[in-house]
Specification:
Distance between the termini: 78 Å
Strand content: 5-15%
Radius of gyration: 27 Å
Low-confidence stretches: none
Structural class: mainly alpha
Number of strands: 3
Largest sheet: 3 strands, mixed
Mean pLDDT: 84
Oligomer: single chain
Shape: elongated
Length: about 210
C-alpha cells in the first residue's frame, strides 16, 4: 500500500508540474497576445493598401536594404512601359493623334512589347530615349492630362518623367525607397507583415485587391 501510495504521489507531482508549465505558457501567450495588434487591410486594387505596408516598413523597420530595393527593379521597368502603353492605347480610343508623326517608330518599339517581353526586358538606353521622346510629344501630354477618362497608374507621371527614365536606364540603377513607394505591384492572396512600435507588435494583413 505504501509503495502504491508513493508511486501515486510521484505521478501527481509530475502532473502538477506539467499543469504549472501549461499555465505558465498560457499566461505568456496571453501577455504576448495583449501586445499584438492585428490590422486587416481591405480595398479595391490600387487603393493604397500595399503602399501603406511599405510606408510602415520604412518608418518602423529601417526600410529596405540594397538587396531588397533591387528586387523592385523589374517592377519599375514594367510600370514605366505599362504606363506608356496605356497612354498610347488611350490615344487611339480618344482619337488623339501624335503631334510629331516622326515618332511612329519609337511608338511601335514601345507598343510591341508584351507582358512576356517585359519579364525578361533589359531597360536599354535606346528604349529610354524612345520613351523620353514619346513622353515629350504634345499629343501624349494631351492624353495624359485626360487620364481621368481611362485607368492609369497614379505614379505614371513620376516614372515617365525624363529624368527618372534616364536614371532607371543607368547600368547601376537600384530603386530608391521613393521608387518603391511609387511602384505598383498587383497583390494576390494575403500577405502578412509585422512591425514593432511602442512595445506592441502590429501584424498587418494585406488582402490582394482586384481591378474592377
Amino acid at each position: 500500500m505504501g509503495c502504491c501510495g508513493g508511486g501515486g504521489s510521484e505521478e501527481n507531482k509530475e502532473l502538477a508540474m506539467k499543469s504549472r508549465d501549461i499555465d505558465k505558457k498560457l499566461k505568456q501567450d496571453r501577455a504576448q497576445a495583449e501586445k499584438e495588434v492585428k490590422l486587416l487591410l481591405l480595398g479595391a486594387g490600387e487603393s493604397g493598401k500595399s503602399t501603406f505596408v511599405k510606408q510602415m516598413r520604412i518608418i518602423y523597420e529601417n526600410g529596405y536594404n540594397n538587396e531588397a530595393c533591387s528586387q523592385f527593379k523589374r517592377s519599375v521597368f514594367q510600370n514605366i512601359i505599362g504606363s506608356m502603353q496605356t497612354i498610347l492605347d488611350a490615344m487611339e480610343r480618344l482619337e488623339i493623334p501624335l503631334a510629331d508623326a516622326a515618332l511612329a517608330d519609337d511608338v511601335a518599339a514601345i507598343t510591341k512589347l508584351s507582358d512576356d517581353d517585359q519579364e525578361s526586358l533589359k531597360f536599354t538606353q535606346e528604349l529610354a530615349d524612345s520613351l523620353t521622346k514619346v513622353w515629350g510629344d504634345a499629343g501624349v501630354q494631351t492624353c495624359f492630362k485626360r487620364s481621368r477618362e481611362f485607368q492609369l497608374n497614379d505614379s505614371a507621371g513620376y516614372f515617365l518623367d525624363p529624368a527618372n527614365i534616364q536614371r532607371v536606364a543607368a547600368a547601376d540603377y537600384v530603386p530608391t525607397e521613393t521608387d518603391i513607394l511609387r511602384v505598383r505591384v498587383k497583390t494576390t492572396g494575403i500577405s502578412e507583415s509585422a512591425f514593432e512600435h511602442m512595445k506592441h507588435i502590429f501584424r498587418v494583413f494585406d488582402v490582394g485587391g482586384q481591378r474592377s
